[in-house]
């Protein structure tokens, strides 16, 4: 149900960002059971702070009274599904490195505000943040910073600005359709695809010419904590360092048995093969890659993921295909949490 879905997102996010204790404060039995199934700590909220008019601050205060050992608190809103670990990590640095006492999330808005007047009043509305005689163009105006409610760290106060595409807040029922579409593209889903092998020839380059759009796609994957390993043939070994410096990705030379080389890396990183994706044009390699998944309960999903790699080979032989791959990895990761 919705409790499970939102708690999964929050748990994946928190563990990736903090790698420490994650607590769920609730007085709801179903949420408690879901939290325990995800092996997170549960703070049983008292009746005193569980009424309809109770605030988050009261709940946090109650938690801290019982856990005086906690020195920094991050209050993550489960109704903000497009929050990513890098948002939390960078905001936390403002406390641990820049010595701020409190940090909250904001988003930049470009909206002109006008004074509200009561219906039937003779009072005229007035502009609150612009001069109509000198109405600025959007590109000439820095806009305003507005709280988006994604998270709060609890003095010296700092804000952390988030991108508009990540500033989604579910407040009323009609927010759900918009949030669902935004999550598919910009949401964070924890342990979906965490390692992706990409053949340089034909995927990252056309001949030996690299594409800026493909590099951009790699950057987006890395920003989402997906490690990309470039697979280079022995004939192209002299360009290994060049590709590594150009992309920031690890470049791996594979021999006559590329599957063996890849398998050793997956085992070394202690990953499940369901966390691994492959993009390339080696059909023999692709078929061998599929054999690892025949015994998994998510066989249909995993094969869909590998077939996606096959489609990349045949249908996306264009500049910028890596950006399209990055978008599909998002969607496939969503599927891995649904099926």
Automatic annotation (TrEMBL):
SUPFAM superfamilies in the cross-refs: Nucleotide-diphospho-sugar transferases
Entry superkingdom: Eukaryota
Name of the protein: N-acylneuraminate cytidylyltransferase
Keyword S-adenosyl-L-methionine attributed: no
Catalytic activity: an N-acylneuraminate + CTP = a CMP-N-acyl-beta-neuraminate + diphosphate
Segments crossing the lipid bilayer: none
Keywords from the named record: Nucleotidyltransferase, Transferase
């Amino acid at each position: 149900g919705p409790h499970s879905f939102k708690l999964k997102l929050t748990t994946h996010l928190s563990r990736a960002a903090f790698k420490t204790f994650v607590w769920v404060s609730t007085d709801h039995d179903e949420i408690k059971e879901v939290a325990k199934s995800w092996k997170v700590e549960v703070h049983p909220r008292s009746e005193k702070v569980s009424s309809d008019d109770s605030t988050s601050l009261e709940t946090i205060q109650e938690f801290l009274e019982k856990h005086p050992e906690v020195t920094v608190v991050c209050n993550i809103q489960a109704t903000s599904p497009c929050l990513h670990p890098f948002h939390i990590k960078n905001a936390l640095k403002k406390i641990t490195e820049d010595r701020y006492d409190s940090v909250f999330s904001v988003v930049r808005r470009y909206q002109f505000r006008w004074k509200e007047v009561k219906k039937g009043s003779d009072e005229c509305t007035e502009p609150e943040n612009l001069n109509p005689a000198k109405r600025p163009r959007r590109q000439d105006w820095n806009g305003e910073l507005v709280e988006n409610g994604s998270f709060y760290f609890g003095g010296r106060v700092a804000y952390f600005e988030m991108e508009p595409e990540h500033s989604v807040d579910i407040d009323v029922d009609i927010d759900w359709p918009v949030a669902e579409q935004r999550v598919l593209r910009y949401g964070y889903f924890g342990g979906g695809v965490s390692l992706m092998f990409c053949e340089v020839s034909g995927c990252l380059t056309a001949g030996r010419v690299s594409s800026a759009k493909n590099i951009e796609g790699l950057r987006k994957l890395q920003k989402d904590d997906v490690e990309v390993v470039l697979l280079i043939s022995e004939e192209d070994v002299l360009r290994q360092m060049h590709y590594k410096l150009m992309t920031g990705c690890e470049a791996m030379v594979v021999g006559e048995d590329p599957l063996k080389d890849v398998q050793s890396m997956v085992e070394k990183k202690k990953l499940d093969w369901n966390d691994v994706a492959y993009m390339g044009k080696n059909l023999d390699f692709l078929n061998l890659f599929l054999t690892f998944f025949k015994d998994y309960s998510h066989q249909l999903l995993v094969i869909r993921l590998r077939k996606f790699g096959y489609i990349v080979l045949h249908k996306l032989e264009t500049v910028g295909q890596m950006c399209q791959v990055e978008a599909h990895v998002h969607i496939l990761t969503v599927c891995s949490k649904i099926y």
